[in-house]
C-alpha cells in the first residue's frame, strides 16, 4: 500500500507542478490519502521547523475541547469572567462566553482584520490590553477576527489546568503524535494563543489526520469525537465572501469551505498568515499540509489553488 501510494505521488509531482510550486513560492507539501503518505516535497530538500502562524488557533481549539472533556473548563457556555473577575464591572463584557472567543464573536472592538494584534504585541501586559478594548457589539452578534481572543483562551487554559498551554499540549497532543520538537512563543507566562507555534510540515499533516480520524490516533481517543465534529462545523459565516477566497465560514478556530462555495469539495482547514494551511477533505479521505513564503494575505490563494486545481483532481 505504501509503495503504491508513493508511486501515485510521483505521478502527482510532475515537472510542470514542480515549476509551478517555485513560481508560487511554496516551501513544503505533505499529502496524506487514506492515512498513507501520497506526496512529500520540500523546496529545501528536507522538512524543518517553521512558524505556522494562525494554524496555532486550531491546535488551541483542540486543547480547549480536551480540557472541557476533562472537566477543567466548565464548557463553551462558561463566562470568561470566571477567569478574569475584573470583567464583572462591564455588563456586556461579563456576558462573553468561551464559545464567543472560539467563534470570533466576543464583541470586543478589534478592527481592520486583527490590526490591534500588532499593537498588543508592543505592550507589557497583553491580557490587560485585550480586556481593556471597548465593546463594539454585544457578544455573539458579529464576527471580528481577533487573535487577542485566542490569547485569552490560552490564558484560560493555563488557569484552568494549572499547567502551561505548551505543557498541556505536550501531554495531550505532541507526545502521542510524536511531534518533532515543536516550539511555541510565550509572553509573560502565557503561550501565544493566536500564533507563535512552530511545527514541521509532517506534524501539521499528522494533526490534520487526527481530525480526519475523529480525534482518534493509534487506538487512543486524543480529542473527543464530538468536539472534532462541532469545532469543524459552521457557527458563523465568517469571511465566506472575502476576495480572494482564502478564508471561509468559521467554526471553533477552524475555517470551513463547502463545495457549494468553492466548486470543488467540502473541506475544513487551519490557516496561517500568508498561506500556511492544514486542509482536510473528508470525502476523499485526504489531508494536505502546505506551507509557502508569507507574502501578505492575498498570496495565500496559491496554496488553495494547489489543493483545488492539482491535489483534489488527482485524488478524485
Structure notes:
This protein is α+β, with helices and mostly antiparallel strands and 316 residues long. The chain folds into two domains: 2-44 and 237-315, no CATH class; 49-199, DD-peptidase/beta-lactamase superfamily (Beta-lactamase, 3-Layer(aba) Sandwich), CATH 3.40.710.10. Helix content is 38%, strand content 17%. A seven-stranded antiparallel sheet has the order 2-1-14-13-12-11-10, sandwiched between helices. A hairpin with a 4-residue loop joins strand 10 (249-250) and strand 11 (255-257). Helix 3 packs parallel to helix 7 and helix 3 packs across helix 8. The chain is globular. Residues 29-290 form the Beta-lactamase-related domain. Keywords: Hydrolase. It comes from Paenibacillus montanisoli.
Write the layout of secondary structure elements.
Elements: H1 2-12, H2 15-23, E1 26-33, E2 36-42, E3 50-51, H3 55-69, H4 98-102, H5 111-120, H6 126-131, H7 147-161, H8 165-174, E4 183-184, E5 186-187, E6 190-191, E7 197-199, H9 201-212, E8 216-217, E9 220-221, H10 225-231, E10 249-250, E11 255-257, H11 259-262, E12 267-272, E13 276-281, E14 286-292, H12 301-315
Antiparallel strand pairs: 1-2, 1-14, 3-7, 4-7, 5-6, 8-9, 10-11, 11-12, 12-13, 13-14
Helix pairs in contact: 3-7, 3-8
Task: Give me some keywords for this one.
globular, three-stranded antiparallel sheet, Beta-lactamase, 2 domains, 12 helices, 316 residues, seven-stranded antiparallel sheet, alpha+beta
So, CATH architecture of the largest domain?
A: 3-Layer(aba) Sandwich
Q: What amount of the residues lies in strands?
A: 15-25%
Give me the CATH fold name of the largest domain: Beta-lactamase
Mean pLDDT: 94
**Number of contiguous helices:** 12
Amino acid at each position: 500500500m505504501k509503495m503504491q501510494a508513493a508511486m501515485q505521488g510521483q505521478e502527482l509531482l510532475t515537472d510542470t507542478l514542480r515549476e509551478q510550486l517555485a513560481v508560487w513560492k511554496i516551501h513544503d507539501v505533505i499529502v496524506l490519502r487514506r492515512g498513507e503518505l501520497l506526496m512529500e516535497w520540500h523546496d529545501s530538500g528536507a522538512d524543518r521547523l517553521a512558524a505556522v502562524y494562525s494554524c496555532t488557533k486550531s491546535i488551541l481549539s483542540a486543547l480547549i475541547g480536551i480540557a472541557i472533556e476533562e472537566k477543567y473548563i466548565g464548557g463553551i457556555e462558561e463566562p470568561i469572567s470566571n477567569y478574569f473577575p475584573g470583567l464583572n464591572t462591564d455588563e456586556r463584557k461579563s456576558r462573553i462566553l468561551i464559545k464567543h472567543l472560539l467563534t470570533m464573536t466576543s464583541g470586543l472592538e478589534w478592527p481592520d482584520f486583527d490590526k490591534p494584534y500588532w499593537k498588543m504585541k508592543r505592550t507589557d501586559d497583553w491580557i490587560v490590553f485585550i480586556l481593556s478594548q471597548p465593546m463594539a457589539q454585544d457578544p455573539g452578534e458579529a464576527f471580528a477576527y481577533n487573535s487577542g481572543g485566542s490569547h485569552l483562551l490560552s490564558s484560560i487554559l493555563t488557569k484552568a489546568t494549572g499547567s502551561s498551554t505548551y505543557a498541556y499540549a505536550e501531554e495531550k497532543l505532541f507526545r502521542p503524535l510524536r511531534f518533532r520538537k515543536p516550539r511555541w512563543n510565550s509572553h509573560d507566562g502565557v503561550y501565544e494563543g493566536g500564533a507563535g507555534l512552530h511545527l514541521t510540515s509532517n506534524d501539521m499533516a499528522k494533526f490534520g489526520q487526527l481530525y480526519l480520524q475523529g480525534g482518534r490516533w493509534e487506538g487512543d481517543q486524543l480529542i473527543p469525537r464530538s468536539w472534532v465534529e462541532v469545532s469543524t462545523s459552521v457557527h458563523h459565516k465568517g469571511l465566506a465572501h472575502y476576495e480572494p477566497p482564502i478564508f471561509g465560514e468559521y467554526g471553533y478556530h477552524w475555517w470551513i469551505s463547502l463545495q457549494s462555495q468553492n466548486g470543488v469539495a467540502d473541506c475544513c482547514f487551519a490557516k496561517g498568515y500568508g498561506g500556511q494551511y492544514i486542509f482536510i477533505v473528508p470525502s476523499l479521505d485526504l489531508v494536505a499540509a502546505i506551507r509557502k513564503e508569507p507574502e501578505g494575505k492575498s498570496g495565500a490563494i496559491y496554496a488553495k489553488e494547489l489543493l483545488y486545481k492539482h491535489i483534489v483532481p488527482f485524488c478524485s
